[in-house]
């Protein structure tokens, strides 16, 4: 049975980050461990929030785990909050990756053509360090453009441009890559490159209007859960896309989308 370490923020009010991923991975039968990068009062689009950086905790925890001989089949990283934190986590992921651990990087930075509230250009630079050690990274289109210094075209891009953007992500250092929330040749799609097969692909989807927080975390958890259970990358991507759609559709009329989707009430959709 594969086990995974989640390195991400813990949000007190909102089903995002670890709060969204843990129930899904547990339901899919993946033993899950955690290393918080920050304690966050609530999702950032409420406008007011408090963040407690946990770099000191990470600095103290990683040597203890190394001393105790802890290891994981996979690591998934999310939002980074300081230069030292990113270097510590990237170094740990590189070390574990060399020993055979799969490293998944969700470069959480922004969406809809802009960075999230509270996210700075410095964090974009830090996230490049994480992408450089990833076996698979899965930014959305906005994040992929920020990571690769590519002009954002919210009206959409061609399949050739999507392939170029995937190659730019690979140039940072990752092996495989997905770009979510793309508009490719006029269709909503996820674009991907699988380094095991040297294969580019894209999968189309129907978009439900509205911005729900935590949907990227849902996508990540479903994708990784199915990959760790032995399913191919393209199939796992399709499953993750369809699951996100069904969860959004169930709660599309909720008043407070900043809070995210109540994951525990959606496990039957997995």
Helices and strands, with pairings:
Elements: E1 4-13, H1 18-27, E2 32-42, E3 51-53, H2 55-68, E4 74-77, H3 83-98, E5 102-105, E6 110-111, E7 114-115, H4 121-131, E8 136-137, H5 141-148, H6 159-172, E9 176-184, E10 187-194, E11 199-204, H7 215-228, H8 233-250
Parallel strand pairs: 1-2, 1-4, 4-5, 5-8, 8-9
Antiparallel strand pairs: 2-3, 6-7, 9-10, 10-11
Characterization of the model:
There is one protein chain. β6 (110-111) and β7 form a beta hairpin. The strands form 2 sheets. The protein has a 9-stranded mixed sheet with strand order 3-2-1-4-5-8-9-10-11, sandwiched between helices. Strands 6-7 form a two-stranded antiparallel sheet. It has helices spanning 18-27, 55-68, 83-98, 121-131, 141-148, 159-172, 215-228, 233-250; strands spanning 4-13, 32-42, 51-53, 74-77, 102-105, 110-111, 114-115, 136-137, 176-184, 187-194, 199-204. Helices cover 39% and strands 23% of the residues. The chain is an alpha/beta fold and 270 residues long. The two termini are 19 Å apart. The longest helix is centred in the C-terminal third of the chain and has 18 residues, at 233-250.
Number of helices: 8
H-E string: EHEEHEHEEEHEHHEEEHH
C-alpha end-to-end distance: 19 Å
> What is the share of helical residues?
25-40%
Mean pLDDT: 95
| Overall geometry | globular
Report the structural category: alpha/beta
List how many beta strands DSSP finds: 11
């Amino acid at each position: 049975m594969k086990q995974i370490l989640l390195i991400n923020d813990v949000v007190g009010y909102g089903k995002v980050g670890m709060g969204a991923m843990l129930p899904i991975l547990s339901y899919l039968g993946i033993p899950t461990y955690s290393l918080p990068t920050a304690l966050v009062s609530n999702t950032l689009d409420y406008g007011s929030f408090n963040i407690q950086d946990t770099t000191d905790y990470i600095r103290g925890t990683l040597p203890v785990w190394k001393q105790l001989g802890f290891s994981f089949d996979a690591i998934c990283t999310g939002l980074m909050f300081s230069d030292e934190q990113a270097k510590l986590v990237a170094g740990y992921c590189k070390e574990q990756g060399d020993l055979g651990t799969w490293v998944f990087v969700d470069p959480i930075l922004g969406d809809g053509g802009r960075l999230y509230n509270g996210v700075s250009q410095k964090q974009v630079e830090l996230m490049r360090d994480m992408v450089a050690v990833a076996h698979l990274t899965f930014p959305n289109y906005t994040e992929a453009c920020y990571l690769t210094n590519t002009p954002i075209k919210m009206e959409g891009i061609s399949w050739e441009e999507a392939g170029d953007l995937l190659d730019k992500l690979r140039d940072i250092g990752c092996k495989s890559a997905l770009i979510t929330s793309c508009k490719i040749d006029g269709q909503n799609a996820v674009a991907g490159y699988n380094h095991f097969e040297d294969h580019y692909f894209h999968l189309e989807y129907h978009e439900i209007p509205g911005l729900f927080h935590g949907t990227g975390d849902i996508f990540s958890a479903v994708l990784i859960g199915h990959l760790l259970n032995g399913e191919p990358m393209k199939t796992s991507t399709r499953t993750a896309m369809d699951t996100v759609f069904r969860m959004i559709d169930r709660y599309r009329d909720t008043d407070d989308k900043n809070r995210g989707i109540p994951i525990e009430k959606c496990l039957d959709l997995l």
